[in-house]
Amino acid sequence: MTEPLLVLEDIRKNFGAIEALKGVSFSIGKGEVVALLGDNGAGKSTLVKIIAGGHEASSGRMLFEGREYRAKTPAEGKAMGIETVYQDLSLCTNVDVVSNFFMGREITRRVLGIPILDEKAMEREVAKALAEAGTRIPSLRVNVEHLSGGQRQAIELNRFVHWGGKLVLLDEPFAALGVEQTRRGLEMIRHVASQGIGVVIITHIMQQAFQVADRIVVIRQGVVAGDVPTHQTTPDAVIRMITGEALAGTGPAAAKR
Ligand SMILES: Nc1ncnc2c1ncn2[C@@H]1O[C@H](COP(=O)(O)OP(=O)(O)O)[C@@H](O)[C@H]1O
Ligand SMILES: [Mg+2]
Asked: pLDDT (tens digit, 9 = 90+) per residue, 6-50?
């Protein structure tokens, strides 16, 4: 495994009487893509929210770059370089690509002592970032509302990489995208990982997990039911982990019978 970026230790989460997570432990390496799989209600989204600061864990510990990490809000996670890229998008649709890229981080230059936005410099920087990632957008000056879902997602991921993001979380990122856009999205994820960034992707599409992930982690009823390098497993084996069928044949449950 690569150098650990985030380590989860015995993460638990209760919602009233519901135990959504019952002690989840695994880690994510730098530059590693982990696919999180599991049935509806298994606890995947809850786990990702805890990592990003959307929920606080009831107990357990996280280590980020070797130090104890706890985010009470998504803003706290973001400040550490940990962010969720949502399918329902955090871009401002009524401004252009360049403005979205630089939102809150604009480059200014001084003219007669007055700071003004250096639009040309910003445009060059965005164009360079997108070119490196192989993202093609017809115009950087078009309002984001005119771009497709796939293009918007690519811009968000590019922005994340550009500003030094370290761990990106994607919850069903391609659910609303077509085949070609999904293919590009998967390529983009590999590009993101190649920059040393950790990626956690929740997907229910087995093929996507096998295409993009270095490791597959299966969550079942709030616990880790499998954690395997992708090249050492098969879709059938993963399905058995998801359904719990694997336990019936070989696991501790079978031993008790
Ligand atoms: N905000 C919440 N309040 C109460 N229960 C929740 C909340 N979020 C999730 N749950 C419950 O926690 C369990 C895990 O949900 P979730 O993490 O969304 O699963 P998944 O993403 O794997 O489908 C489910 O039983 C769900 O109903
Ligand atoms: Mg979910």
From this structure: 999 999 999 999 999 999 999 999 999 999 999 999 999 999 999
CB 180 within 8 A of CB 92: no
Its domain, for residue 238, covers: 4-93+164-256
Closest ligand 1 atom number to CA of residue 39: 22
Separation of 223 CA from ligand 2 center, angstroms?
15
Please check whether residue 101 lies inside any domain of the structure. no
Per the DSSP assignment, residues forming a β-bridge with 228 are 216
Cβ(106)–Cβ(117) below 8 Å = yes
Q: How far is the CA of 84 from the centre of ligand 2 (A)?
A: 13
Taking the centre of ligand 2 as the mean of its atom positions, its distance from the CA of residue 215, in whole angstroms, is: 19
Mutate to test the pocket of ligand 1, among 15, 48, 223 (most ligand atoms within 8 A of CB): 15
pLDDT in tens, 63-80: 999 999 999 999 999 999
If you average pLDDT over residues 146-151, what whole number do you get? 89
- HEC profile for 122-140? HHHHHHHHHHHHCCCCCCC
| Residue 89 main-chain phi, psi, to 5 deg | 55, 135
**Residue 211, in any domain of the structure:** yes
Q: In angstroms, what is the span from residue 90 Cα to ligand 1's centroid?
A: 22
- The CATH number assigned to the domain holding 13 equals 3.40.50.300
For residue 88, tell me if it sits in a domain. Answer: yes
Q: Which ligand is nearest to the CA of 54?
A: 1
In the chain, how many domains are there? 1
Confidence category of residue 123, pLDDT binned at 50, 70, 90: very high
